[in-house]
Amino acid sequence: MSFNNKKTKLSGQNTEYFPGISKIEYRPDAPLDDTLVFRHYDAQQLVLGKTMQDWLRFSVCYWHSFRGVGLDPFGSGTIVRPWDDGSDSLETAKQRLRAAFEFFSKLGVKYWTFHDRDIAPEGNTLASTNANLDIIADLAQELMQKHQVKLLWATSNLFANPRYMLGASTSSDAKVAAYAGSQVKKCMEIAKKLGAENMVFWGGREGYNSLVNTDVKQELDHMAAFFRMVVVYKQKIGFEGQLLIEPKPKEPTRHQYDYDAQTVMSFLSQYELGQHFKLNIEPNHTTLAGHCYEHDVVMASIFGKLGSIDANTGSPDLGWDTDQFPMDIKSAASIMKIIIEQGGLAPGGLNFDAKVRRDSTDLRDLFIGHVAAMDTFARGLKIAAKMVEDGLLKQAVEARYSSWAVGLGAKMAAGEATLEDCEKLIHEEGHPTPESANQEHFEAIVNNYM
Ligand code: XUL
Ligand code: CO
Prior knowledge:
With 450 residues, the protein is an alpha/beta fold. It folds into two domains: 35-390, Divalent-metal-dependent TIM barrel enzymes (TIM Barrel, Alpha-Beta Barrel); 393-449, no CATH class. The chain has 16 helices and twelve strands. It has helices spanning 52-56, 62-67, 90-107, 116-119, 126-147, 174-193, 216-237, 261-270, 283-288, 295-302, 329-341, 363-390, 392-400, 407-413, 419-429, 439-449, and strands at residues 46-47, 50-51, 58-61, 111-115, 150-155, 198-201, 207-208, 242-245, 255-256, 277-281, 306-310, 350-352. It has an eight-stranded parallel beta barrel with strand order 3-4-5-6-8-10-11-12, surrounded by four helices. Helix 11 (329-341) links the parallel strand 11 (306-310) and strand 12 (350-352). Helix 3 runs parallel beside helix 5 (126-147) and helix 11 (329-341) crosses helix 12 (363-390). The longest helix is centred in the last third of the chain and has 28 residues, at 363-390. The radius of gyration is 24 Å and the shape is globular. The chain binds D-xylulose and cobalt (II) ion.
């Protein structure tokens, strides 16, 4: 079946786009093969004094769930939705949006996210593109109000259109960067209108494929200059959302400038932009960078820079960004432990930057992916809360560092010691005795909580 030729079957304001699926309920005793219920996610249940809903702040992303058709480099789309004729018309854009809000509402999520180009078609001129966005933003505002769903973040797609093949703010062509600037300006205005709590910048093609033809220093300087314009406009229009940069090491470019959390944080420090930005961490990007699943979440959090999370996972045996629904309870617990330790994620949230597999073509697969991922994180939250409450792991880790709390250790930690002090101590006390890190003991404790 050709996706593009498909006629729209559904239309109208009162159409039900997901007939047969009602609001997903919390039913911990449902049969184990009923995957359209929550067994752990109970939105109003209190965990460490806060509701699950407030800890988890779930969000559905528009691009995968309402624009994804299962394209891959080897074949065309496999996913056909009854409300979507695959065209770029405004009518279809409106219909998708209505279907999406029915989905958010039946799922019980309070947030959504989008790229400007996901929600409204690009016109022939910037003016007509912006006019399309205005029309769709009006409808979005109405639906957000009706369904009580808020905007976690908006972002500009600065990578799909061929004009961005050399990057956006880091393009060798200044006019391309100017186009990106005009696009971000409009996106921020829409974000403000819709009350977005954050705005994300993922540098889709900000990077290089070859050093032979690239002036890396100029490109980084240009990226910083671009972000300065963003900050100035944010202040000018009074947009109050948190600005977030999303690291990714590669794909689509061979080397992306925002490689990982530490790279982005040092870029922000280098260009004195630190106070204006936090990070949106996507674990599938973290593993692509060669780190363990929670590494970037930890790195961002310890420096007060964890703004939001694109909750997904990759296949560790593959080397690319598969954007799968996060289904691993232990990984979710590791993330939730960090979120609890930093006191929550607001104004950020857990945004499912995840897509159903291209061979998961049923409409209900879209629900099941989200329901199961929400339950995975709810379970992770409960496990992490227990770990934090008990304090066993924390105490055991603290015990490993106890020598830094006394004597010369404390003096060094406070930055008050000298190399002469170090030498004196070793002369007096001799060699340090190696101490076990007891990794297996710690791993066993973690397992005991699962
Ligand atoms: C790409 C990715 C994006 C960003 C938003 O890998 O994660 O969808 O989250 O542009
Ligand atoms: Co993402």
